[in-house]
Amino acid sequence: MFEFATDDDRGQVGIGTLIVFIAMVLVAAIAAGVLINTAGFLQTQAEATGEESTSQVSDRLQVVSQAGNVTDSQAVDELDIVLAKAPGAGNINLNDTTVELIGDGGQETFSVGDEGNATIDMFSGSSDSVLIDTSDRAELNIVLDSDIEYDVLQAGDRLAVTFTTASGASTTTEIRVPTTLTEDQSSVRL
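^ that's the sequence the OP posted. Answer follows.
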């Protein structure tokens, strides 16, 4: 009725158990490898998204001053805007910046780097249109009613100017032409 296992039978049970154990370890190792690989991919993607989001918020321009050229017919035909990079911003290439003008004369969007739309005068910092340090300054000269086809500004006009850097960060400034322009004025603070 009862059989006793011999030494040979006990060895076969041990080898079967060992094979099942090794198979389970291999399956667990493969699953762990897939999980580690997926976690590494997600971490890389999250870091890239975080860096892009940070630059989209911080890599923006700061308007230092704005002035305009007054013509003989008491209108503003040129905008001179002094720009600096905002605190915490990375390097900003002004040639990759887009400008949007919105006002009574309509809407106009153009890239600073396109020929004829605007000129850049770097009077502090590097000479290649890149703001590197917070002390760098650049004057952006926009000629209205020329290649960008936006009407000159009359006395009392308002104009919203939005600068968008290559990273997507934007800065908006409002230009208000004084209600009175005289023949004696050659330029006016806006």
